[in-house]
């Protein structure tokens, strides 16, 4: 079988703010169609790593390639072309409060002028429907939206240019458990429908269970491990132990599979699958 195409290649990156080294010799590869979660302690440099991948930070050493383009060395026009192939959902949603939902989602289309003006409305309405928003939500301002709706609008905006690559920074943070579950279901569906490659920062173990193919652990300034959840959860590193404390039993491949199957159930009672209710035995 041919090796899957590498969409993201981070090679021996060092990042520092002033004298403070955030990443040292950090390596990470993400292949087409993968959903990779980045986990790590608060302040470990997850958001900074996303910013490096977006070309918003420049590493002190090493290289970052996206779709085969080295970010630091791209001509401005090349970088623009690469940028429109990804979508980003920032940690706080980053909607423009003065614009309504429609105009927030339409913004990238209008900036890029890639479609005729009369296509903007049908495309925006289609994206809103795709993320489960109603047509009447289009006229609301961000202040009138619930946390879950803000995430959906941000996701619609991230998807409006039909990106191949999606970056999500803490997509379920701040959501109540039910909205979180709905959002995760939405991600799963979009991933299946659109064949996206996704890199997401998350602390949410349920999100890891529901959508993630591979978990990359950022600790001690680099990616200390990356692999399937069942493998990574058993690493003896203190951060990993703490992160999965009380969840280890659930991380067996079979349990993750059962959890995913339970999410495919279209009924929406908000109930928690049985496998999640089991207490971890004391040891
Ligand atoms: N623009 C900046 N200038 C200086 N220090 C920064 C900046 N952004 C982040 N940092 C520092 O870099 C470290 C990693 O931050 P961040 O990437 O936001 O961590 P995480 O997302 O994992 O919580 C933190 O110590 C933070 O204070
Ligand atoms: Mg962060």
Which properties best describe this structure?
binds adenosine-5'-diphosphate, binds magnesium ion, 283 residues, single chain, globular, alpha/beta, disordered C terminus, 10 strands, six-stranded mixed sheet
Task: Outline the structure in words.
The structure is a single chain. With 283 residues, the protein is of the alpha/beta class. The protein is 37% helix and 23% strand. The chain is built from eleven helices and ten strands. Helix 6 (177-194) runs parallel beside helix 7. The radius of gyration is 19 Å and the shape is globular. Residues 267-283 have low confidence and may be disordered. The structure holds adenosine-5'-diphosphate and magnesium ion.
Shape: globular
Which range best describes the helical content: under 10%, 10-25%, 25-40%, 40-55%, 55-70% or over 70%?
Answer: 25-40%
User: Which structural class should the secondary elements be placed in?
Assistant: alpha/beta
The strand count comes to 10
Number of helices: 11
Taking the alpha carbons of the first and last residues, their distance comes to 43 Å
Gyration radius (Cα, Å) is 19 Å
SS strand fraction: 15-25%
Please state how the strands of the largest beta sheet are arranged side by side.
6-7-8-3-9-10
Name the bound molecules: adenosine-5'-diphosphate, magnesium ion
On the 0-100 scale, what is the average pLDDT? 86
Sheet with the most strands?
6 strands, mixed
Question: pLDDT under 50 segments (min length 5)?
Answer: 267-283
**Succession of helices and strands:** EEEHEEHEHHHEHEHEEHHHH
């Amino acid at each position: 079988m041919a090796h899957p195409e590498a969409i993201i290649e981070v090679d021996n990156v060092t990042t520092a703010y002033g004298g403070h080294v955030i990443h040292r010799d950090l390596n990470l590869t993400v292949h087409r169609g993968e959903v990779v979660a980045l986990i790590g302690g608060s302040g470990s440099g997850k958001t900074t790593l996303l910013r490096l991948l977006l070309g918003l930070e420049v590493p002190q050493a090493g290289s970052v390639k996206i779709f085969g383009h080295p970010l630091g060395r791209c001509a401005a026009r090349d970088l623009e072309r690469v940028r429109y192939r990804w979508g980003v959902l920032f940690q706080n949603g980053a909607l423009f409060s003065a614009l309504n939902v429609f105009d927030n989602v339409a913004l990238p289309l209008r900036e890029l002028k890639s479609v005729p003006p009369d296509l903007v409305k049908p495309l925006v309405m289609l994206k809103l429907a795709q993320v489960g928003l109603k047509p009447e939500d289009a006229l609301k301002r961000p202040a009138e939206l619930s946390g879950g709706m803000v995430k959906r609008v941000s996701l619609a905006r991230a998807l409006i240019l039909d990106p191949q690559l999606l970056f999500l920074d803490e997509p379920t943070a701040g959501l109540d458990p039910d909205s979180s579950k709905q959002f995760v279901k939405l991600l799963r569906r979009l991933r299946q429908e659109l064949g996206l490659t996704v890199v997401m920062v998350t602390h949410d173990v349920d999100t890891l269970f529901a959508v993630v193919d591979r978990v990359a652990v950022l600790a001690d300034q680099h990616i200390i491990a990356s692999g399937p959840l069942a493998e990574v959860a058993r690493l003896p590193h203190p951060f990993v132990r703490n992160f999965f404390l009380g969840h280890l039993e659930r991380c067996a491949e079979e349990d993750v599979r059962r959890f995913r199957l339970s999410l495919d159930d279209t009924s929406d009672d908000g109930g928690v699958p049985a496998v999640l209710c089991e207490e971890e035995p004391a040891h």
